[in-house]
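pasting input
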Amino acid sequence: MMTDATPLQNQFAELLRWEKQKRLEQIFLCATAVALAAAVLLSPLHGFLPLRGLRWLVPVILTLGLAPGFFYHRRWRAVDATRTFVELDRKLALAERAVTAWELAGRSDRSAAAQLVFQQTEPHLRGLDPRRLFPRRWGWPCYAVAPLLLFWFALLWFDFDQSFSQQSSPVQSLAQQLREFARDFQEKAKTDGLRQSLQVGQELEKLAQKNLADKANEERLKKDLAGVKQKLDAASKSGPQNQSIAGAESEQSLRDLKAELEAARDMLNLPDAAKVPSPQQWLERLASMPQLRNQLDREPQGGKGLGQQELQSLLERLDRQVADALDRRALIDAQQFLEQMMNQGQGKQSNDAAQMAGRGEQDEPGDGVREKNHSNLPGKEPGRNDDSLRSLPAFRADTRTHVEGQLGEGESSSLVFKGKPTPGKSELAPQEVVANYRRQAEQELNSEKVPAALKETVRKYFLSLEESNR
Amino acid sequence: MESLADIEQRIDSARRTYAEVKAEIARVIVGHEELIEQVFVALVCGGHCLLEGVPGLGKTLMVRSLGEILSLSFSRIQFTPDLMPADITGTNMLTDDPSGRKLFEFQRGPVFAHVVLADEINRATPKTQSALLEAMQEQGVTVGGKLHRLENPFMVLATQNPIEMEGTYPLPEAQVDRFFFKLILQYPSHAELTRIADLTTAVPAAPLREILDADGILQLRQWVREVPLADVVKDYAVRLILSSHAQAEKNSGESLARRYVMYGSSPRGLQSVILAAKARALFAGRPNVSFDDIRVMLLPSLRHRLILNLEADADGISSDKILNDLTTRVPEVA
């Protein structure tokens, strides 16, 4: 009687298939884990990739690159099959019958002794489920893959790799600076209503974004900047040079004038304005504002004899001129910034200078090229009285602080209105005074003199003043 | 060609025979089950055993009992320093034939038996020892230019006393290597001693019955060699033998063998291990050899084949310890 070895061989084949499948899975997991670990370690070098989007493909590329090595190193060998059957013998306590039977079957041994080995082995393997007998074993690669994947994904999602890249890539740093400047510039232009500056800011931001996305080299960025600068030069030359405001050369005086113009328009639009019969009285009120008075003094007869309509048209004209002047100054700032960026690359000092240019200039005596040094940092300009700057209490950033406005208590800054009060009774309503203060404060808030954490506090203070006046 | 049923019957027969031999010897020998198994294994493998143990442990009794059970001729040679080779092999004697002519007739020595007990073999001179060892190896003796074949099966069970060294001639390594097994008799336990007392001081038991004859043993020898051996198991045995050398491959790590062995096992050691493992599998009723068979047979097969250095002697390291260390270090699958 001969024992048919076919069922036994089928069982062996099934067992080997399962073991090979497990091996493939383990190799793939191992390669993936190593590739992810390598991707995390290599993330600071993402700046060298030709395209930004490629960083998402780094683990895939690494896996594909490493996998052949892993598959070769841990390829299935004859000894692995032997190990499988030795393990099978151990688990089923077959005293090496299975491995002997496998070898005898492999040799096509049909001797009686071989038949007996087959016969004694086959019942033990009948109905055997290799998946249950040899379940998958999850090693370290399996446990490492998920955390590594999450970590790598977080790195890329939150652009931590980019911060590394920017540290290592000066070109990216330059583009980043340009983007920051462009955003600040746009915000300032929006606040001041500077149409042309806003357009330039938008254009600069687009340029910076494009360079960041394309990972353009330094030469290309500078070339682009040169193009923008040329446009700015042309715009500033063709601009309305004759619209400069006489007597208001500095930016601060222009801003003061702008604030006064707004206050004057508010006064003209006040509900009780109709009760004021005489334009002369309007003129007197407007003359209480120093910058506006200067402008009125330049009008024929000091503006006397102007009707309310004429007065309003005068204010509108002045407003346009102020806006144009501020726009032109902002464009000059931008020009200077771009020029410095193009000359950049020599070190951090010039970098700092470029950043200072982006902040805008305060109390510039003229439109000429400004010399960069510590003496003209905001608040340190020559001739500026530091005592006039109120020192603010030390507030911690991001700390919510609310200061209740209380009239007559605590220190307060003052703005001198040289109106001629009617004896016994003020001609200025308290609301107008508070509105003036509030506008001036808002101007300050829009500038960068007030720390961001305190802006809300200052705003609430003036709101509370208005409420208490009512 | 043999059928599957024949093989099954053969294995069953071998298993039963072994069980009967063990049971019969157990009537007169207390304990030493492992030793009895190993002696029987050596017999069916065609090997010789070197028994080492202090006097009075039943070595001679065991060998004699084995001879009785197996229905084999048995002779005992007490080795002494003045024993001559001819006293073992036999010699040509001058005799008269019926016609009155003088002629030399070969008088067979005690070596012409199936089972020969060479008691205290290390007391004889090397010359006498080598006469016996040559007979063991060649399965015959040459006297007067004529070869005289020994009995088949032929087995020598030599004993030596490990504690008495004075006036002895230790066996040379080359001759020790010819022994299939070296077996060490341990002192009996309390329970075994009690049983020995009962057995030997009461009315003698009935004589042992014959279980196996010479033909049966020769048949078993044939069967043993036909037991299949998987390559992976054979490879394990080979790696164990190689690891017993001081120049072993790195896979044995910092094994005791690397430190204490001067010369490792000879290829005879490998033959001995594999044959013994096959016999053990057959007596266990298995059609194949397992790793366990190899491990169990490693000690009796190799312990006398390792030549240890002086450091081992100084550190009290025995061959058994080194071999046990190897079995834990060498993996079953390379």
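fyi Chain A touches chain B at residues 1-3, 79, 82-83, 86, 89, 95-97, 99-100, 103-104, 109, 111-117, 119-120 (CB under 8 Å).
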